[in-house]
Amino acid sequence: MSRLIINGGRPLHGAARAGGAKNSILPILAAAVVNGGENIIHNCPDLKDVHSAAAILRHLGCRVDWQGDAIIVDSAGMDRWDIPDELMREMRSSVIFLGPVLARCGQAQMTYPGGCELGPRPIDLHLRALGQLGVEIQEDGGRIYCRCGKMQGRDIALALPSVGATENIMLCASACSGQTRIVNAAREPEIWDLQQFLRKAGVQVSGAGCRDIVIQGGGPVRRTVEHWVIPDRIESATYLCACAAAGGRVRVERTKPAYFSAVTHLLEESGCQVETGEDWAEIQAPRRLKAPPPVRTAPYPGFPTDAQSPVMAALCLAQGSTVFSENIFENRYRHCAELARMGADIRVEGRTAIVAGVERLRGAAVKATDLRGGAALAVAGLAAQGQTEIRDIEHIDRGYQRIEEAYAALGADIRRED
Ligand code: UD1
């Protein structure tokens, strides 16, 4: 068990670099089984979840190697279609292997995925959509057995624009005959990245970023794919929030501000000066933040649920009260009780949290409860007076590559203890 020790209250200055997007690399690694060949994926972040995906790929019989920040997946030798429970439970994204394993092998066996506990995270939309494509699904004691009947593309309307379900459908539909149209598809940038990867593999897919995505079946035709993962918008947004909270001036490089404009806009409304270019964003924090209009999480291009907690950590110190409305997940306020230990004034009522800004936070012993909630505690710890100890930082490691090094490079007094 590792922990972060932060001596807070020091403004941050300097540059941070965004890594490859966690939410892109995970579906792309799953997609690498589809073409039965060599996939060279650059800008791959060194994250716990990426290692979990690599473990699944190796179990399935794929070769996985690292070369610097590139991960190379050779799926030619894939000879299994089952994923054991212990690998499934490592992360939520294990469920994204369902579509591609079916596309490649015509059958799949797995259990329910694990991941952050943000309330119930069903996979009914995934299973219903795969059923509509002709997959026969049997569930028995938490196990899911899938076998492809006649796989036929068709229109699939999603009740919610689920990111994971959209990805699973795109991947499975690549092996169907005929055309599949996903209506009410998720529009996140990571969906676009998956589309780019699939196109490089020779799959005809279009529409990512729009409401409808169209996939022509027939399978991938190219055995070798080389791809560069897009930058992580949530990691970038987190660094900006850390500066907004602790003060100072920080530039995030190798990023794509267009992907997180909802967050930069909100930080501007909170009194920060934010400048952006094609691949960088720079923030200058005000003397004190001011409470912005209500923050309502929504599917992309709305305010990202993954940025809710880091932004909240910063706004704990704002002048005035901020209302948060969490519309994606039922239980995404677990960090609030930990922030309260640091002196934050937060009232949670169902899906609403009301944050009354306080003048200062004080260091405390806290516990990361989930990935982004843990990152929020680090943001608060950087701004707090005195020492903060964050336990259970394995959650943070799922989505941030050596977060302490990024903050130390900005002048923070932070260290990891194992
Ligand atoms: C992805 C992201 C996660 C982000 C989330 C929402 C990855 C690896 N993870 O998660 O970081 O917080 O999008 O932007 O990309 N739902 C159902 N039934 C389903 C599927 C989803 O009811 O079958 C519900 C979920 O419970 C949730 C909502 O739909 O309330 C959105 O979930 P979804 O978009 O599927 O999130 P993930 O793909 O799990």
Overview of the molecule:
- The chain has 418 residues and is of the alpha+beta class.
- It is 31% helix and 27% strand.
- A four-stranded mixed sheet has the order 21-22-1-23, covered by helices on one side.
- It is elongated, with a radius of gyration of 21 Å.
- It starts with a strand and ends with a strand.
- 54% of the residues are buried.
- The structure holds uridine-diphosphate-N-acetylglucosamine (UD1).
List the helices and strands and how they pair.
Blueprint: E1 3-8, E2 12-17, H1 22-31, E3 38-42, H2 48-59, E4 63-67, E5 70-74, H3 85-88, H4 98-105, E6 107-111, H5 124-132, E7 135-140, E8 143-148, E9 155-157, H6 163-173, E10 179-183, H7 189-200, E11 204-206, E12 212-216, E13 224-228, H8 233-246, E14 248-253, H9 261-269, E15 273-276, E16 280-284, E17 295-296, H10 308-315, E18 321-325, H11 335-341, E19 345-349, E20 352-356, E21 365-367, H12 371-383, E22 386-391, H13 394-397, H14 403-409, E23 413-417
Parallel strand pairs: 2-14, 3-13, 9-10, 17-18, 21-22
Antiparallel strand pairs: 1-22, 1-23, 3-5, 4-5, 6-8, 7-8, 10-12, 11-12, 14-16, 15-16, 18-20, 19-20
Helix pairs in contact: 1-2, 1-7, 4-6, 5-6, 6-7, 8-10, 8-12, 10-12, 11-12
